[in-house]
Amino acid sequence: MSRLNIELPGLSLKNPIMPASGCFGFGREFSQLYDLNLLGSIMIKATTKEPRFGNPTPRVAETSAGMLNAIGLQNPGLHKVMSEELPWLEQFNLPVIANVAGSKEEDYIEVAREISQAPNVHALELNISCPNVKEGGIAFGTIPEVAKNLTKRVKEVSQVPVYVKLSPNVSNIVEMAKAVEDGGADGLTMINTLLGMRIDLKTGKPVLANKSGGLSGPAIKPVAIRMIHEVSRAVSIPIIGMGGIQDASDVIEYFYAGASAVAVGTANFTDPFVCPKIIEELPLLLDQLGIGHISECRGRSWKANELFAHNRA
Amino acid sequence: MSRLNIELPGLSLKNPIMPASGCFGFGREFSQLYDLNLLGSIMIKATTKEPRFGNPTPRVAETSAGMLNAIGLQNPGLHKVMSEELPWLEQFNLPVIANVAGSKEEDYIEVAREISQAPNVHALELNISCPNVKEGGIAFGTIPEVAKNLTKRVKEVSQVPVYVKLSPNVSNIVEMAKAVEDGGADGLTMINTLLGMRIDLKTGKPVLANKSGGLSGPAIKPVAIRMIHEVSRAVSIPIIGMGGIQDASDVIEYFYAGASAVAVGTANFTDPFVCPKIIEELPLLLDQLGIGHISECRGRSWKANELFAHNRA
Amino acid sequence: MIKNEKLSVVSHKEIASRIFELTLSGELVSEMKQPGQFVHIKVSNGMDPLLRRPISICSINREMKQFTMIYRSEGRGTALLAKKESGQEVDVLGPLGNGFSEHEVKPGETAVLVGGGIGVPPLYELSRRLKKNGVHVVHILGFQTKDAVFYEEEFKRLGETYVATADGTNGTKGFVTDVLEKLEGSIDVIYSCGPTPMLKALEQKYSHKKLFLSLEERMGCGIGACFACVCHTADDPQGVSYKKVCSDGPVFRAGEVLL
Amino acid sequence: MIKNEKLSVVSHKEIASRIFELTLSGELVSEMKQPGQFVHIKVSNGMDPLLRRPISICSINREMKQFTMIYRSEGRGTALLAKKESGQEVDVLGPLGNGFSEHEVKPGETAVLVGGGIGVPPLYELSRRLKKNGVHVVHILGFQTKDAVFYEEEFKRLGETYVATADGTNGTKGFVTDVLEKLEGSIDVIYSCGPTPMLKALEQKYSHKKLFLSLEERMGCGIGACFACVCHTADDPQGVSYKKVCSDGPVFRAGEVLL
Ligand SMILES: Cc1cc2nc3c(=O)[nH]c(=O)nc-3n(C[C@H](O)[C@H](O)[C@H](O)COP(=O)(O)OP(=O)(O)OC[C@H]3O[C@@H](n4cnc5c(N)ncnc54)[C@H](O)[C@@H]3O)c2cc1C
Ligand SMILES: Cc1cc2nc3c(=O)[nH]c(=O)nc-3n(C[C@H](O)[C@H](O)[C@H](O)COP(=O)(O)OP(=O)(O)OC[C@H]3O[C@@H](n4cnc5c(N)ncnc54)[C@H](O)[C@@H]3O)c2cc1C
Ligand SMILES: Cc1cc2nc3c(=O)[nH]c(=O)nc-3n(C[C@H](O)[C@H](O)[C@H](O)COP(=O)(O)O)c2cc1C
Ligand SMILES: Cc1cc2nc3c(=O)[nH]c(=O)nc-3n(C[C@H](O)[C@H](O)[C@H](O)COP(=O)(O)O)c2cc1C
Ligand code: FES
Ligand code: FES
């Protein structure tokens, strides 16, 4: 009897653990370290219509309990992802979540239409929140109406459920979440990185060539937990949570906040075996906490105690 | 010859280091540890019209390289601050920055009018960004028009320059900064805390009684640096920077980003002697970096190299 | 005076399940005034974890400039502390707060010291001082289970000592209050430290006695500046008057603050 | 195969100013294939600092399952690494990347190994192998100043060795390229590792030779998954084709990628 399986729109997950987009490439490198079939799913690197080289280097900088990145959506482009990366991933029993990015609405739509037809792509993750792309990007992630319209148009062309990835760099995350729910999103993924910067002591210049970048890692976990806590009560679509997850306890904290599954990003760099480790630890932790199935944890931070007791009875 | 003195509206600082509001009370406790005259200034605890007890406990929670607080603006109220705390501080040669808070516009105005008349209050810090107060607060800190109007009205009654403390929990920090500059602000202080939450693994409930709280400490430094980098180029009023400062290098990083002085918050809890330590270390670090006066560092991250070289010549 | 000093580890051992006894030496010890005061400890050099950990002073040896703490390895911070070895340094801020006044009870009178779990340690220095003052001391120590019991012998050497365990595996099965109720002879003062429910039960039943309670609260600064550890005063339970556990307490007279 | 293992410290000493030589032992050593490969090191247990640090393999002893690194204590991470003592463990991910191919030069031919500062270490294992293969090896090692010089004797034992220091306090005053220019006799291959300006200078002057360069770049994962360490290929300097320093490199043939 599994205690970790989770059903989400488009996704039948053997466990709720998956690598976050951009932190795992298309899985090739990690497949040399462990069997990718262990994972619940995989969120592949952001795919754009045309191949992109991304930003100049340095592209990463370390911060306290976090890191900044300004990769700039480097990827081989829709065509290669469809013809090489996704077919390669078919050898695994792994529902793929395809991260879709662009700088114009048309780009998103074209990528979504095509990539959602790949047999192993079971859901899209609409990346409206990449902080490292100069043109366009920002409005999609920060103006509710714009996000809603994009969601709607992508939904029209997508063959699979659409999850929208929210940016934390907004005044009102609930408003954004509701807007994309209105636009027809099947789920949310959150959070993308916070915008940050580091300056080199000796040169006086930003460490990243792109100057600012996206802050990820344990430093941002409290922000993510707070946002998921707020959003999960305000919408009725499920949330895949991410931001600083390092171990099984973090996963439970995300479920308590209101997430239905989680993604692990930066921690893959510190410990490339972190995903299978978490999957192994989770049942033991559930035992310790006296919880039968992981789904019982969902929303426990805001559900009334009684209700929760009843659910477990 | 001092290499650390800084002139700001209302503030003639012997050095640019001061404790951040809420992390130093009214100075009484720290005065038992060292001579407060060492400090550049002191930002006293938020003062409201009436005394406030604040939120239930627990009021603090630890996070990775950070902490959450939900003190809830506990303070003895305007009357006591005027009659007891500020007079007590007069024994020191210390320009005081009074942090002014409220939940209604009228409250701010009344506190600002009164407290700006205290002889040792040389500037006000308008706290439009406290994340831990349920009513009112949020709009002041996130809607540019509202912030601008409040600034304008406070300026009308204040006897001393007014600095506005910006919240980082906004989509567009530059817009907020420009709005309060338009409203007549003499300076900015930034950043206040990011909204965050931690959930207890065993109980499934938020650690803080208030549920969410403000995230401070090294974790948020990259966010603060990025915001100051953006804002300092867009406005012409000076910025007092804060967020995760722990040592002299952090101070220089803030100056490089565009700050003209800095405040130290959370680090006072880890090391109560941190402010005098930083003040002592700064000249040594300036030596190492080959910088004469600390003000030369200001904005180096965005000033053209030539311009900077010229300034130093 | 409050000092910040790196003290060196004299000895460090696990004396019960996950319970560690740590003895440190340094100048700061000469500042320690009262049993029941605490120190605020930085367990690592870096910022992980960021905050200090408050731990009570368990015994003081002024001549040797040493003091001992007893703590439970609980979360991340105390787990790291548990790794410190003899000769290494520990960053200590202290002594902090106001402890138990040993002068509330006269020679020949009886003081009952009631401790629960990791609330037991500060009572040890108190007991030593009371005993020295000629006070008749009785100890009632509550623990979860046999494996968690510590310092039973040490307390016995100072006076009558009763142990209660929640599961009955050592001493009386039940709570310290069960033992206290059955105690014979007069009681002049009760000093107590332990979990809040225990303190509440004591306050409810023994508010007519001279009763002192040591409180716990999550702390930021530990020195009274951040208002993290505030509690309502008992006479103004909804109002704005308050006490800080770190600097006004952690020991309060029963009825002074709202538990 | 890439492994993640806690290796134990066999020896650790400062061999020049802020330059440390660290020997570790563990199973992972048997996976090491080439000189010029590197390992990715986690210097602390917690998350401060968060990222691993890339350090080149300096010498490999497969029989003893030991390998040696040489690094400069620079920022926070390497300063912490410098504190590790014999018997302690170091979390190592590796071996990573593609190193110097020793088969690009035939027995009897001449290979010149040009290293700058902390770029010197990976050349040591390379030199040992070349020498074993019967290659004539010449070393040109550049440092800032006398105090920063290390492994001069070790290299001398393997072949002709020239040292250059920027301030002239040891060997030739100037850059490694100054020495290289004056070198007599034929050069069949140049292998190099050091700061980018040095690599650029070599590429400019010796692109007609067989020249191999080991690059440095800020890294995230170190295994090719995060695209932090990407550089343009030389034939498409503005385009989308790329190489990853961590997994395609760190050693490239001159002219392969844009420096
Ligand atoms: C005045 C005082 C005296 C104390 N004396 C002792 C003692 O003698 N022996 C002992 O074992 N314990 C004592 N405690 C409790 C001790 O402080 C906590 O067990 C310890 O802080 C937990 O830290 P951690 O790293 O294990 O847990 P974590 O879960 O990592 O702690 C996270 C944060 O919560 C705080 N925290 C967690 N539990 C408590 C708690 N119960 N009280 C206050 N803060 C808490 C930590 O200080 C830290 O800031 C005392 C607490 C106070 C307030
Ligand atoms: C393939 C490769 C091999 C290397 N081999 C060696 C070696 O054998 N000996 C040696 O002393 N150094 C070597 N370096 C450089 C070494 O990685 C850095 O000096 C080290 O990471 C600095 O870490 P820190 O904690 O001292 O500095 P910090 O300033 O704390 O580092 C902050 C962040 O920047 C990164 N960083 C800083 N400087 C560099 C750099 N020069 N290159 C890459 N990342 C950097 C760090 O890894 C970390 O993520 C190598 C680098 C690479 C890429
Ligand atoms: C190096 C790097 C690259 C990333 N690339 C992408 C990306 O291409 N698309 C995307 O939606 N998110 C991207 N992210 C964001 C992550 O998917 C994730 O939302 C974020 O890092 C927070 O999770 P973490 O703290 O576990 O890393 C990237 C993050 C990092 C660190
Ligand atoms: C315990 C605590 C209380 C605070 N109270 C106030 C306050 O009363 N008014 C205010 O403007 N900011 C308050 N702040 C925010 C700080 O002044 C500062 O902006 C923030 O903590 C970031 O700086 P730091 O990372 O150095 O702490 C408080 C912060 C903390 C940690
Ligand atoms: S812990 Fe800061 S006031 Fe008590
Ligand atoms: S460091 Fe991640 S791809 Fe090279």
Automatic annotation (TrEMBL), chains A, B:
It comes from the Bacteria. It is found in: Cytoplasm. Its EC number is 1.3.-.-. Its cofactor is FMN. Transmembrane segments: none annotated. Pathway: Pyrimidine metabolism; UMP biosynthesis via de novo pathway; orotate from (S)-dihydroorotate (NAD(+) route): step 1/1. The active site is at 130 (nucleophile). It catalyses: (S)-dihydroorotate + NAD(+) = orotate + NADH + H(+); (S)-dihydroorotate + A = orotate + AH2. GO terms for molecular function: dihydroorotate dehydrogenase (NAD+) activity. Residues 4-284 form the Dihydroorotate dehydrogenase catalytic domain. Binds 1 FMN per subunit. Substrate binds at residues 45, 69-73, 127, 192-193. InterPro entries: Aldolase_TIM (IPR013785), DHO_dehydrogenase (IPR050074), DHOD_1B (IPR033888), Dihydroorotate_DH_1 (IPR024920), Dihydroorotate_DH_1_2 (IPR012135), Dihydroorotate_DH_cat (IPR005720), Dihydroorotate_DH_CS (IPR001295), Dihydroorotate_DH_I (IPR049622). It is an enzyme of class 1 (oxidoreductase). It holds the Pfam family DHO_dh. FMN binds at residues 21, 45-46, 99, 127, 165, 191, 217, 243-244, 265-266. Keywords: Cytoplasm, Flavoprotein, FMN, NAD, Oxidoreductase, Pyrimidine biosynthesis. CDD domains: DHOD_1B_like (cd04740). Catalyzes the conversion of dihydroorotate to orotate with NAD(+) as electron acceptor. Belongs to the dihydroorotate dehydrogenase family. Type 1 subfamily. Heterotetramer of 2 PyrK and 2 PyrD type B subunits. This is Dihydroorotate dehydrogenase. It comes from Peribacillus deserti.
UniProtKB/TrEMBL annotation, chains C, D:
Residues 2-102 form the FAD-binding FR-type domain. Its cofactor is FAD; [2Fe-2S] cluster. Binds 1 FAD per subunit. Binds 1 [2Fe-2S] cluster per subunit. FAD binds at residues 53-56, 70-72, 77-78. Pathway: Pyrimidine metabolism; UMP biosynthesis via de novo pathway; orotate from (S)-dihydroorotate (NAD(+) route): step 1/1. Heterotetramer of 2 PyrK and 2 PyrD type B subunits. Belongs to the PyrK family. This is Dihydroorotate dehydrogenase B (NAD(+)), electron transfer subunit. It comes from Peribacillus deserti. The gene is pyrK.
